Every structure is written in C-alpha cells, then in structure tokens.
Amino acid sequence: MQVQTVWSGVYSDAQATRGKAQFEIHCSTCHRAGPRTGDAFMQTWAGTDLTSLFNQMKTSMPADAPSTLADNAYLDIVAYMLQANAFPAGSDELEIDVLKSIRVERQEGPGPVPNFALVQIVGCLTQAPENVWMVNNASEPVRTKDSQASKDEELKNLGKTGLGSQNFRLMNAYPAPDPYKGHKVEVKGLLIRDPKGDRINVTAVQSLASTCGK
User: Fold this and answer.
1) CA 38 to chain centre
2) Is residue 111 part of a domain?
3) What is the pLDDT of residue 2?
4) Is residue 113, in this structure, part of any structural domain at all?
5) What is the pTM assigned to this prediction?
6) Which of 103, 136, 154 is the last residue of a domain?
7) What total of structural domains would you count in the chain?
8) How high is the pLDDT of residue 64?
9) Would residue 69 count as lying in a domain?
10) Stretches in the chain below the pLDDT threshold 70
C-alpha cells in the first residue's frame, strides 16, 4: 500500500463541489460556520488517515440520522472538507479503498504527535521496580481514533512493525499486563509528554509476539 498525504491531490474539484452541496443539505444545520478548518482541523486529524475522518462522519452525521447517506456522499463531503482546508485537488476522485493510504499532515511534514493525543505504539513490555510497567524499544507513537486493541487486518500488519528507540511508562494499565511481560506488545492510550519521561495512560494492551527480538 503506497502511502500518500492530503497534499498529493487525492480528490477532484468536481467531487468537492458535490460535497459542498451535500454539506449544505445535511450538515449545515449543526455546522453553520462550515467545515472545521485550519489549526482546529489539524489538531483533531493530523497524523491520522482519511479512514478515521470518513468513519467518524459516517457514524455520527447527520446528527439526527447517522449512516443514512450513501458512501459516495460521505466521500464527496470529505473531498469538500479537504478543499476547505486548501489541500490541492487532483484529477482523480477520492475512493473508499484508498482512504487508509492517505494521511493528514501539515505541508512541512508530520511533526511530533501532540500531547494528550490518543496514540498507538509497539514495543517490549518490561516491569521496573515498584511494579512500574514500561514499554521499551518502542516505535514512534502514531495517532489513532480507536482506543480499543487492534484487530483483523490492522492487527496482522502490526506484527510487521519494527521496534524503535522510545521508552514509555504505562499508567493505569488494567487489568495488569503480567501475562505479556517480555512480549512484543501493542499499547494504545493517551500520550503524556514529560521531561522526566513520556507516559501513556493506557486504554488497551495486547500481545503481538511472545518474545521481543525484532
């Protein structure tokens, strides 16, 4: 899967025009100022792929009848939101099967994941003194919109994720992850940046492998 960004011309002007009409019919009652743009948009979506935006829109909008529009209508609205945020148009229309491969990021690059963002990491689960749980040799934190442990295709792909050089202290890991000690694990939770050591307030932990060699 070739990864693109929202700066790659992933929608067409005609699609965004249709999306604007759909937005005005179905969304403007609640969003009278128009789509979220600028820093507000990036604070919410930077570091995620367009699947997250599409799914949240589909499952929550229109507010009085979520999931009632056709998928193509939701895709058109996503295209309009990209246009409203000044991401460039291209020649091809946005399709549902490429959403996962398109990441939202600033033009100058992805930048660090912001404090208190919901993230996913992969690393080695260890236990420090005083019953402190750590994930060592962890990958860079990646934003996610799903607080639950990964499953299906996403879980399969996680097994291929290599280790990194990050270390995170785990907070509120419940139930205690004792069965996964020494395992390669996935952890999801809220990122808390701290000069004394970054932490993750845990929402999910699961084992990816019974050893942590790679």
Assistant:
1) 18
2) no
3) 65
4) no
5) 0.71
6) 103
7) 2
8) 87
9) yes
10) 1-2, 214
Q: Which domain-ending residue is among 79, 103, 127? A: 103
Give the integer Cα–Cα distance in Å for 82 and 16.
Answer: 8
- Torsion sign over Cα 58, 64, 65, 71: negative
Answer whether 125's CB lies under 8 Å from 181's CB. Answer: yes
Q: Looking at residue 153, which CATH number applies to its domain?
A: 2.40.50
Do the beta carbons of residue 27 and residue 61 sit within 8 Å?
yes
CB atoms within 10 A of CB 96: 14
Is 179:155 a contact under the CB 8 Å cutoff?
no
Q: How far apart are CA 17 and CA 89, in angstroms?
A: 11
Cβ-in-10-Å burial (0-12, 13-18, 19+) of 209 comes to middle
The enclosing domain of 36 has a CATH number of: 1.10.760.10
The bridge status of strand 132-138 relative to strand 102-103 is unpaired
**Are 126 and 170 in a shared domain?**
yes
* Domain, as residue range, for 29: 4-103
The string over 97-124, giving b where at least 16 C-beta atoms fall within 10 Å of a residue's C-beta and e elsewhere, is ebbbbbbbbeeeeeeebeeebbbbbbbb
What was the pLDDT predicted at 112? 80
